[in-house]
Amino acid sequence: MTTRTSTTTADPAGTPTASAGVRVTSTTLADGRELLYFDDSEPYVSGAATRRLDDPRPLPDRFAPDADGVVPTGPELRRDPLTGEWVAIAAHRMNRTFLPPADANPLAPARPGATYQDGEIPAEDYDVVVFENRFPSLLRVPGVLDEVTLRDDEPLWQTRPAVGRCEVVCFSADPTASLRTVGPRRMRTVIEAWAHRTAALNATEGVEQVFAFENRGKEIGVTLHHPHGQIYALPYLAPRTATMLAAASEHRARTGRLLGRDVLDAELRHATRVVLESEHWVAYVPFAARWPVEVHLVPRRDVPDLPALDDAERADLATTYLELLRRLDLFFVDDDTAVPLPYISGWHQAPARQGRDDWRLSLQVFSVLRAPGKLKYLAGVESGVAAWVSDTTPERIAARLQELA
Fold this sequence. Notes:
22 strands
């Protein structure tokens, strides 16, 4: 077991610096995965006390040979010859944890006095915690070279190790909470964790993109209801990211301007779809929104990613994001009762190694719920060829969110 402690986040260059009253402590779980506590409360933030760092579980090293002497190779990537896109093949995820009972919640703190439980966090309480996923779809295995090979010597069948990293971010020790209910101080700690991990993962060999996201609600397919999100460090540019980067680069070449800046300026100029403004942030429904509920939250200043945000922007984001989530949870009402919105939120950040000057940070939040009890199921033309059809208008979405101010 190794431990590292610091009171850090990351400055715009990605270098650890003192900030924001968040103490970061790193340790190693029984099977070798890294876990980091992000503490903002006493006596931990000052260093007067430290969260539990040992992991008593009898877990084997994740890279050790199995009983038959077989050395793990990890998940793989296969290139789709029809699109050129990489697909992660991670068969071990078929048996991952699915909707466990409350007394077997792996994201809950350890039970006081328990000598052993198969939970991921050794401490009996925590503020925010990040750890490597036990069932990752991306994993760098020591000794396995990241190189493209051909399956069965077929030139069309390209494969490579699914190197990268998958992390879980627990927003609260309270399994009944949600990101919306954590409060501004804890929300700020979550932001520090996102920025810290983005900077660290961007600097990791082979990582091309870091995507921090949250899935909330059974309608989205959440398998653990504890308030948490995830961070994927991908060894390639995801298809949507590649498309967005191509559009931004083309816009820069044609106009000399930043596409994300021009989009924000247009939304502010017309104001029809702007739903929330603060000193440093603007939320608007995009002109070509695809989903029944969709909002983009962007900084007023041109920055490529979360580590580039300054202290004032992070503090403002903590309150602005919570206000946006408050309104989203009031969007639908059924029998005079607000319906908590199932959603996916994701930070679209600049790639780690290319196109950073053409990129502008944005958060996308969207929902598959089109009315209480009714979901938007993708039609054949949407699932088959990604030809999207919206069931509402962006202006109607914006008008509803403006009402909720």
